[in-house]
């Protein structure tokens, strides 16, 4: 009896420490029926389908998966598999056929219930209209909250597949919250009304026919609007108020004017040629990203868009050459709220030491008296030698604390600008110069511009050493204790 009691006590202790067998086992079937599909939806669709094979009772769980995202072959993949042109075409057709078969199989078996996101990303010609219409029909009939159709990189712009916006209007009942369309055509009309809960709209290389401002007028809850490389509209003039719009991006558009009413706008981005831009009532605008085409870009950033004067953060991209338009004399304090500025400049000149377009930034600092941080990335498309130059004039600056300059090759204009800042920024804590271009100018690869550092680095380091000693002796600035700290990016 004592041995039996001891054995029972030991078993009880083990169960207490490790748990009884029944307590440690877990079965999906033990969970409520409505919870099981939710757990399965946490897996990517492909993994959910594979997991459903584990148990017979799980086999239908994936058919309630909330996110159906399909990535198929794009034209970039077409010729990558083989050097033989015809074999490559056959391979592409097989990939696309397999992709179409997979999508059709999934939507045929799926319950169509509880769809959160339906996304298709694949290079599809107009000849596949029947399949595309079937997928659009499934996405809309299942009332997916997020719909993405990206058919881009098919180089037949006049054969874009038509996306029926009216399909998103289910008896006047709005259901889509995010809509991303690429390389399709749309035709807004007065019949469409079901966009009241749309929060995000992205149109990329879309052919727009019909009343586009009228469509936006029905998007009363729109918070994010991005229009990239679209055509079919001459102007983006939207007279209706978009009171909840917070982010607006317009890029690569062949239009004559931009005009929006957006009282909640916080971030405005424009990339394109110089045109009139009017933003009404944007008292909450805090960030602007500007890229004007042509040699007048830098000047126009500071003069052509009065609506951005209240921003705290400014990111600008520009070309500079000897033909660049100079900044006009402006009264001090136009950008009274600007705290952080990033500049990406491409300098086109055959004479790096004769071009002083970069010095326009000294004027920019004059009109931003409360600027605290400046990041300047300079890609100079020229060869160079080292030179020193006279210091250009600039007003005293009482707030600038940190300056970072990449692509610094000791060109005359670069030296003059650096000395302008060193002499006039009374509270400057750190100026870091970097011969490498550390920022991808216009999303490009800058590795080819960083190949000659071995020749450039000694001269840049010598200039940094001499300049640091000069300004330290003048006691005009608060420097780090060691010169190598100030120029840590170079020496490291």
UniProtKB/TrEMBL annotation:
Source organism of this protein record: Triticum aestivum (Wheat)
PANTHER family the UniProt entry points to: OS02G0105600 PROTEIN, OS06G0716467 PROTEIN
Domain F-box positions: 25-61
Amino acid composition bias (Basic and acidic residues), ranges on this chain: 12-23
Name used for this protein in its record: F-box domain-containing protein
Residue ranges of the region described as Disordered: 1-23
UniProt xrefs under InterPro entries: At1g61320/At1g61330-like, F-box-like_dom_sf, F-box_dom, LRR_At1g61320_AtMIF1, LRR_dom_sf
A Pfam entry, by short name: LRR_At1g61320_AtMIF1
Record SUPFAM superfamilies: F-box domain, RNI-like
């Amino acid at each position: 009896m004592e041995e039996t009691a001891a054995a029972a006590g030991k078993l009880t202790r083990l169960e207490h420490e490790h748990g009884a067998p029944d307590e440690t086992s877990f079965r999906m079937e033990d969970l409520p029926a409505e919870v099981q599909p939710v757990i399965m939806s946490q897996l990517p669709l492909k993994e959910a389908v594979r997991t459903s094979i584990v148990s017979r009772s799980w086999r239908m769980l994936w058919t309630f998966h909330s996110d159906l995202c399909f990535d198929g072959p794009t034209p970039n993949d077409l010729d990558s598999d083989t050097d033989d042109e015809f074999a490559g075409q056959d391979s592409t057709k097989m990939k696309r056929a397999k992709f179409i078969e997979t999508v059709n199989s999934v939507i045929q078996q799926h319950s169509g219930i509880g769809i959160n996101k339906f996304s298709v990303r694949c290079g599809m010609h107009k000849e596949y209209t029947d399949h595309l219409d079937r997928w659009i029909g499934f996405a809309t009939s299942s009332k997916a909250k997020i719909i993405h159709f990206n058919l881009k990189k098919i180089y037949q712009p006049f054969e874009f597949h038509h996306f029926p916006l009216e399909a998103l209007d289910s008896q006047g009942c709005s259901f889509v919250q995010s809509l991303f369309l690429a390389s399709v055509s749309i035709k807004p009309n007065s019949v469409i009304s079901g966009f009241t809960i749309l929060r995000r709209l992205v149109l990329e290389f879309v052919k727009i026919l019909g009343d586009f401002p009228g469509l936006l007028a029905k998007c009363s809850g729109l918070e994010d609007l991005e229009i990239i490389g679209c055509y079919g509209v001459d102007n983006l003039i939207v007279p209706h108020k978009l009171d909840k719009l917070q982010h607006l991006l317009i890029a690569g558009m062949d239009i004559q004017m931009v005009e929006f009413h957006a009282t909640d706008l916080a971030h405005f981005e424009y990339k394109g040629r110089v045109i009139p831009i009017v933003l009404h009532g944007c008292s909450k605008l805090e960030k602007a990203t500007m890229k004007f085409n042509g040699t007048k870009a830098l000047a126009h950033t500071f003069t052509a868009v009065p609506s951005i004067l209240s921003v705290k953060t400014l990111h600008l991209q520009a070309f500079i050459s000897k033909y660049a338009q100079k900044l006009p004399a402006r009264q001090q304090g136009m950008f009274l709220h600007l705290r952080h500025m990033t500049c990406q400049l491409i300098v086109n000149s055959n004479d790096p030491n004769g071009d002083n377009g970069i010095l326009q930034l000294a004027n920019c600092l004059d009109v931003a008296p409360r600027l605290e941080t400046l990041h300047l990335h300079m890609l100079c498309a020229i060869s160079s030698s080292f030179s020193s130059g006279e210091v250009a004039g600039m007003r005293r600056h009482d707030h600038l604390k940190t300056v970072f300059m990449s692509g610094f090759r000791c060109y005359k204009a670069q030296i003059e600008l650096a000395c302008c800042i060193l002499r006039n920024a009374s509270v400057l804590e750190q100026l870091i110069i970097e011969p490498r271009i550390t920022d991808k100018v216009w999303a490009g690869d800058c590795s080819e511009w960083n190949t000659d550092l071995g020749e450039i680095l000694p001269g840049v380091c010598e200039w940094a050493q001499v300049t640091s000693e000069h300004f330290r002796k003048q006691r005009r600035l608060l420097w780090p204790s060691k010169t190598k700290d100030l120029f840590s990016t170079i020496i490291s």
